[in-house]
Amino acid sequence: MTDLTTLSEEKLSTGGAVPDFAARIAMRENERYGLHSLHLNEMWVRVLKTIGYDVGFTRGLGPYLWDRKGDRYLDLLSGWGVFAIGRNHPYVRDALVSVLDAELPNLVQLDVSVLAGVLGEMLLEYAPWLDKAFFANSGAESIEAAIKFSRAATGRPGILHCAHSFHGLTYGSLSMNGDNIFKKGFGPLLPNALEVPFDDLAALEAALSTREYAAFFVEPIQGKGVNIPSDDYLPGAQALCRKYGTLFVADEIQTGMGRTGKFFAIDHYPGLEPDMVVLAKALSGGHVPVGAVLTRKAIFDKVFDRMDRAVVHGSTFSKTDLAMAAGIATLDVIKNERIIENSAAKGERLLASFRHMVEKYELVCDARGKGLMIGVEFGPPQSFKLKAAWNLLETANSGLFCQLISIPLFKEHKVLTQVAGHGNHTIKLLPPLTLTDADCDWIESSFDAVIADAHNAPAAVWSLGKTLAENAIKSRMSG
Questions:
Q1: Spatial distance between the Cα atoms of 200 and 79, rounded to a whole number of angstroms
Q2: Strand pairing partners for 409?
Q3: So where are the chain's domains?
């Protein structure tokens, strides 16, 4: 019989070779887009080539990316908020290596994980009014769990969400999506999901008063558009949910973990204590996917109410040791490196700069945000020349004007940004929370230069059209 120690030291499938994935990637680098076109999403490759984003990023560290030419970029997208502590943080990486080196009995299933217990304890310290944690593989999967928990706890079928919301793309979360472009072709969705206007307490009460709804799901700041409610909306929504017996669920998937200058965005509102808080994205540290639902014991106990229902909801990989360690290490970094304080300070600085641009440039109509979740909104200008150019772009495609900003930011200033939603006129900044003053200088000077250029409307429109046309031709030729 083979000794287990000997077995663990053998490399039967690799002949003892240590895998060198950097070399493997380098060997296939010139096939990057061809492989994806052939085996994955060809349409996404076409998009990247059309707008000129096919630079082939080869390295990431902190808030920076490097392309195949060695050019450095400032990443204001951070993997849709995943890399709050920056890419490849050494502490998180070392934590994961230590878990692998420990040869832990991972995912035994007929046991429980120490690391999962520790991560649950750490998270609940930030939400002391809640008692239980449930782990999942992603934000969308965590939303699905919260839907099931709310129905089990209340016995009601209905789910409420807001217009312009985004909670994920699985079927339950998709049913609460406020943008029909994501829903088209995938129906029928949940029949009991109702949309109400965001920041409208009267409309919310009208729906809640039917007492048909298990839960009201809301993003404290909406990711699609960086929409911030009035100061009384979230406290008012909580009071109405209490009044009508509906659970109040805060989707902090994008806003949580220090993004807004506090650990949770709901922490900006004293006394706000949702029945469930959903987390993901930044909790992973950027390495191993993980999501979480923090909830009241009374809700949890309605789901797992007997021993024969102990596994009535779960997920195979939800409490893998690597995911739990990534979450623990990320929380360590946030606390020890004062990430939240930096988010608040740098966000305040950038917002002040962008608000100055609102006063300075007629195409910039608003700048809003909390911490390092910032939206810069563009709108129709007053002057005749600029208005004609704006109308031309909007006739071609609603929201196209923002490409007049994001493409030059990327190509000329090496700043990666995104439009805050389909047909939206807002560019969203969602950078790592580790930005320095030098990074802020880079952001401010780049935006100021590009926006100033955009006010030279005919030249800017021609430049954009030329860029899009050239890249569309290049995409067809290579593809």
A1: 31
A2: none
A3: 25-85+339-478, 91-336
> Do the Cβ atoms of 86 and 93 come closer than 8 Å?
no
In CATH terms, the fold of domain 91-336 is Aspartate Aminotransferase; domain 2 (3.40.640)
- Helix ranges (DSSP H) in 246-338: 297-303, 321-336
Structure-token pair, residue 59:
């390295």
Domains 25-85+339-478 and 91-336 share a fold: no
**Catalytic residue (choose from 135, 166, 248, 410):** 166
pLDDT tens-place string over residues 262-289: 999 999 999 999 999 999 999 999 999 9
What pLDDT is stored for residue 420 in this prediction?
85
**Lookup result for tokens 């995938």:** 186
The confidence score (pLDDT) of residue 398 equals 72
Catalytic residue among 49, 224, 262, 281: 281
Quick: pLDDT tens for 18-46.
788 889 999 999 999 999 999 999 999 99
The token pair that represents 473 in the structure block: 């031709």
Instruction: Give catalytic status of residue 441 as yes or no.
Output: no
Q: What is the pLDDT of residue 421?
A: 81
Does the active-site annotation cover 166?
yes
Query: Which residue is listed with tokens 């079927």?
Result: 171
Contact status, residue 100 vs residue 288, Cβ threshold 8 Å: no
CATH number of 25-85+339-478: 3.90.1150.10
406 neighbors 419 (Cβ within 8 angstroms): yes
Query: Helical H runs in 155-232?
Result: 171-174, 180-183, 201-208
- 30: tokens are 């010139």
Q: Please report, for residues 36, 37, 60, 145, 444, the alpha-carbon distance to residue 29 in angstroms, rounded to integers and kept in the order given.
A: 12, 14, 16, 39, 33
**CB-CB contact of 133 with 293 (8 Å):** yes
Q: Which of 251, 275, 321, 439 is catalytic?
A: 251
